[in-house]
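Async update (no meeting this week)

Hi team, since we skipped the sync, here's where things stand on the single-chain job. The sequence we agreed to prioritize is pasted below, unchanged from the tracker. I ran it this morning and attached the output directly underneath so nobody has to dig for it. Comments welcome in thread, and please keep replies under the output.
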Amino acid sequence: MAQQQQISLPAKLINGGVAGIVGVTCVFPIDLAKTRLQNQRSGQQIYKNIQNIFDVFKAIKLAANDFFRHQLSKDGKLTVFKEMLAGCCAGMCQVTVTTPMEMLKIQMQDAGRITAQQRVMPSVVTTLKMGGTSAVLCRSYNTNPAPQVMRLSATQITRELLKTKGFLGLYKGLGATLMRDIPFSVIYFPLFAHLHQLGKPSPEESVPFYWSFMSGCLAGCVAAVAVSPCDVVKTRLQSLKKGANEETYNGIVDCVRKILKKEGPGAFLKGASCRALVIAPLFGIAQVIYFVGVGEILLGYTPHSIYSS
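Output:
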């Protein structure tokens, strides 16, 4: 059984890294739209595209899930419960590494929205009616060119966070990130494994690459939509700079309560379609590259997958 083969964790990490680079390069524009939609504003892009390379580290969950599935399958059949447990462990491993990077990414993606809002400065002017004494209030906007805004970098944001919030400031929203990524992994990995297995022509043959892609897309889409409310809460909590009249939140419960009260239940699905469009191709592409076995080839091993048993 392939499940009993010894896996190479370094090779799996290389696979995940390569898969992440290709995947995030393809879906970056949609991920930007998702963040903007969840924060309910639009603005001008003033960030560097290199920020989304942070998402490469999300691919750590692919290697971690492979590792935990292998360990849990040593004492017998890999049940659905064990598959979910492996996904849960993989999600926890990922979050410890990626939470600070998610924090930085959201600040950079959301910077344009805040800047654009500041450019439109409403003012109230008083205009006297011709031949009358009554004053009429009307709204006008400052049309002066906005000062040039320095492009943000991850280094600048990190320094500012460390200076003002300390090291723990990089982990703001950790609870919400766990609340999103653990359920995502619990749903995604077992669903992908079973969909992937359906495409196996025979016990001796491997699954076609296009089936791996479709399985990754479908499983990613389902899992992404399922945890979208948690992603909205996470994005709101990790957005440090607020625009005019925007709420501040004191934790997950306060965030959920204020969103429900002021925006209604539908607000928790903001950006859900964009998130599905990000996650589906991201994991579809990642799974294809992951199963090619680039890491095993580079390290001189024979590519294999514990899903192919």
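Quick observations from my side:
Confidence is low (pLDDT under 50) at residues 1-5, 41-52, 121-150, 304-309.
The longest strand covers residues 122-128.
Reply here if anything looks off.
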